[in-house]
Amino acid sequence: MPDIVVRLSCLQDMNAIQAIYAHHVLHGLASFEEIPPGVAELAERRASVLARGLPYLVAELDGAVVGYAYAGPYRTRSAYRYTLEDSVYVGPGLEGRGVGRALLTRLVAECERLGCRQLIAVIGDSGNAGSIGLHAALGFRHAGLLPSIGFKHGRWVDSVLMQRPLGPGDETLPE
């Protein structure tokens, strides 16, 4: 398999990002959205992430965008300011080839560089072994289960919560 290149996203990536996300919205349970947003909406969401100084990354294989990841605030209340939530999406048919691992590894490093202390994964569907396994392999631990929290594709869907400390985590006070 060719080398996976992870880099900062740019506006020219948004068509590929939208296609990847639309696939997951329409066919999967990773997102609880049911109607795929368009390119303009996703570009606005990306701009919001970047305006907060947070990372928004893409993965490329042979020059084509095959996945993306970003970190956003876990919650908006000020006490959560050192905690982020990750989102990782891989193009259809590319699962298990290291794209998600490359993206999440870089995302963790970027979040640590920012001085954040906790990273939360909110994983749609307790049967999502790929995402759960990826997060566990990169140091995330199971933090909870929200049973039947969503309803999509004609069935109730769980959310799995996983958490990973960043840098010193809660061992020291933030600066």
Structural features, described:
The protein has 175 residues and is of the alpha+beta class. It contains 4 helices and 7 strands; from the N terminus they run E-H-H-E-E-E-H-E-H-E-E. Helix 1 packs across helix 2. The mean pLDDT is 96.
Shape descriptor = globular
Low-pLDDT stretches are: none
Which oligomeric form is depicted?
single chain
Q: Distance between termini?
A: 42 Å
Overall structural class, as computed from helix and strand content, comes to: alpha+beta
Written as H for each helix and E for each strand, in order along the chain, the element string is EHHEEEHEHEE
Largest β-sheet summary: 7 strands, mixed
State which percent range the strand residues make up.
Answer: 25-35%
Mean pLDDT: 96
Give me some keywords for this one.
alpha+beta; 175 residues; 4 helices; globular; 33% strand; 7-stranded mixed sheet; 7 strands
In short:
With 175 residues, this protein is of the alpha+beta class. The protein has 4 helices and 7 strands; from the N terminus they run E-H-H-E-E-E-H-E-H-E-E.
What's the structural blueprint in terms of helices and strands?
Layout: E1 5-8, H1 14-27, H2 39-51, E2 56-61, E3 64-73, E4 83-90, H3 99-113, E5 118-124, H4 129-137, E6 141-152, E7 155-165
Parallel strand pairs: 4-5
Antiparallel strand pairs: 1-2, 2-3, 3-4, 5-7, 6-7
Helix pairs in contact: 1-2
